[in-house]
Design brief:
The protein is of the alpha/beta class. It has a single domain, classed as Aldolase class I (TIM Barrel), CATH 3.20.20. It has a 9-stranded parallel sheet. α9 links the parallel β4 and β5. α6 runs parallel beside α8 and α8 packs parallel to α9.
């Protein structure tokens, strides 16, 4: 990936308004535009309902206005096994606020009305979607303007049913791969994944870190031998230097916990602006 990502930032308008692929496929349009510009994109995560449901649409807008090309909307869950302390606190507060999956759909619908071309992805745990109903959540998500799902605890071996519903409505099913993933697991993900593949940079939970693992490039290159769709790398990304390093080997960089930290540490009146500024700083 070129460091032009930082010299000439590709914002949401430039990133997504492309005639290379049908405009209804927002994720593919985003990555096609990034590829044409020889740049990497920034994927951002925000938990719906934190610090409040009323504030979430404004925070989503701040992410996009700061330069995010894709936004992951975190669906609060009571047992977030892959999340570190920062996101656990945030999702716990969202649950205390009474946030439901229907609320997440409403936030997505609000964001879609304001930003018609920006990809939105639900990120959550399988039980939330299963309890809602797999067919129903796929139908309702598409109606709300959601482009895909990242289901953190859904392995490819058990994903065929959900995958079939996603394919039926045209939603992407985005899988995670870890440095410990075997060649067999990578092949299984390659057979089912759409949109992009999320490579977890470390074998651990989410959370901002001071350094990236030294073997990250080897891991991404190993995955790329099997995967024909874009690759995004996340977990632990918190600094511009991290984004610079990942942009050399991946199609996108994912930032989550560091963004939640900004929200947590900001006064209510300045949260959106500080979040917007932090994202802008990350993309340069």
């Amino acid at each position: 990936m070129s460091l032009n990502f930082f010299r000439a930032r590709v914002g949401p308008e430039e990133c997504l308004k492309s005639n290379i692929v049908p405009t209804t496929d927002r994720i593919s349009a985003c990555f096609s535009r990034l590829k044409l510009a020889a740049t990497s994109g920034l994927v951002t995560y925000i938990p719906v309902g934190y610090p409040s449901l009323a504030e979430t649409p404004g925070l989503v807008a701040a992410l996009i206005e700061g330069g995010a090309c894709i936004v992951e909307l975190g669906v609060p869950f009571s047992d977030p096994l892959a999340d570190g302390a920062t996101i656990q606190r945030a999702t716990h507060q969202a649950l205390l606020n009474g946030v439901t999956l229907k609320d997440c759909l409403q936030v997505a619908s609000t964001a879609r009305a304001r930003f018609p071309d920006v990809p939105l992805v639900f990120m959550g745990y399988y039980n939330s979607f299963l309890q809602y109903g797999l067919e129903a959540i796929c139908d309702d998500a598409i109606r709300a303007g959601v482009d895909g799902f990242i289901v953190i605890d859904l392995p490819p071996e058990e994903a065929e049913l959900f995958s079939s519903h996603c394919k039926r409505v045209g939603a992407s099913l985005i899988f995670l791969l870890a440095p410990t993933s075997t060649e067999e697991r990578i092949e299984k993900v390659a057979a089912l994944a759409s949109g992009f593949v999320y490579c977890v940079s470390v074998t651990g939970v989410t959370g901002a870190r001071t350094a990236l693992p030294p073997d990250l490039s080897d891991f991404v290159n190993r995955v790329r031998k099997h995967i024909r769709i874009p690759i995004a790398v996340g977990f632990g990304v918190s600094q511009r230097e991290h984004v610079l390093a990942i942009s050399k080997v991946a199609d996108a960089v994912v930032v989550g916990s560091a963004l939640v930290d900004v929200v947590e540490q900001s006064d209510a009146n300045g949260r959106a602006e500080k979040l917007r500024a932090y994202v802008h700083e990350l993309v340069g």
